Structure formats: C-alpha cells, structure tokens
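JOB MANIFEST
job_type = single_chain_structure
chain_count = 1
residues = 213
[input]
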Amino acid sequence: MRLFLIRHGQTEWNINGRAQGHTDIPLDPIGLHQAQLLGQRFEGEEIDLVLSSDLQRARMTADAVASATRAPLELLPSLRERGFGTWEGKHFIEFAAALSASHLGRFDFTPPDGESFRDVWARLEPVAQRLMKVSGNVVVVSHGGSLSLLLARLIGGPIEISQSFRFANTGVTELGRLPDGRVHLATYNDTRHLESIHELENPFVGSIDGSSR
C-alpha cells in the first residue's frame, strides 16, 4: 500500500487567516493553479482510489488528481475540517485569545456549536481503520487540521502528536505499510510541484493555532 495525504489548494480565507471549518469556500485562482500542478505531479502514478472531503475546496483539489490518474473519487463528509460553528469566518488570532481565556485544554476546547480536536479525532477513527486495511494506492484529500489528526492516528501516535504536523496547500505526504502492518512515513509535506508559483509567499498561511485550514 501507498497512501498519499494531501491538503486542499489555497482559498481566500487561507490568505486572510480566517477559520473555514465546514464553510464551503472554493479555491482561489492560486489554489486552482496549485490543483492543476498537483494533478500533473500525479500523472503516471498508479492510483486505485481517491478519497476526499466533500467540501468544495478539497473536492476541487481531488478532482485534479482523479482526472490525472483516472482513479475513482469518493467523497467522505467524515474527512471535513474541524467545525467551528458560529465562529467560522473569525480570524485565528481570536481563537488563540479565546483558548487562552478558557479553562479547557487545547484538545477539548469547543467553539459554540462547533467541534473540539477530540471530536474530530473520534470522527476520523473509522477512516483511519479503513485506510489501515485497504490494499492498493490511495490518495486522501482533506484539510490541515483533520490531516494532522489523521496522520497521528495512522502512525499510531497519541492525539498530542498531531500538533507537530503542518500541511502546506497541496502538500503531499506519503506513507507505506510494512509487512507487519505498521505504517511508515516516506515523504512529508512535499511541495516541489509548486516551485513555479512565485505568488505563493507563505504556504502555511492560515495556520496560526494549527487547528484548521
């Protein structure tokens, strides 16, 4: 098995540092270009399945990979980003201030009508179990916060290790499965396909608290 984890392309809210969550924001012009280059990067790869969040920023990115590889595309709401409820659209600086004022820890803090990190951790468990059993080569297109939690699950780490991971827009992380069933990390956050985009000054924009993209 080869497994590719990919964050969606850039959106306007990424640039503005606003929490997107479940708000269905499309790719901006640079994000569309990134998706095109990502598709070109996967041309010639033998991909058996593309799984994607059903939010359009992820779906538009996944479409480029599915088209380039002729792999079937399956949309999974469980791959959505952390929901921020009534706080969606707020700047991440506001989240950092609210977290500092809260008596809850980072992983249990929940925006009004939204989800905590721990909620998303639980939501992704069936996805991780499926990926640990799947055969063939699979691409997963999702969101920065969700991917950090999914990667932590896949490598057998605790939820806390998810805070160590950051994903650039269309960054590619590749994992493989060893004969004993363990997963190994082969490539982390590869963005070489974006070298021709000079407008992208900071691929990590929008990740102030590492929570959502």
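[summary]
The longest strand covers residues 183-190.
Helices lie at 12-16, 29-42, 56-69, 92-101, 117-123, 125-133, 144-154.
exit_status = 0
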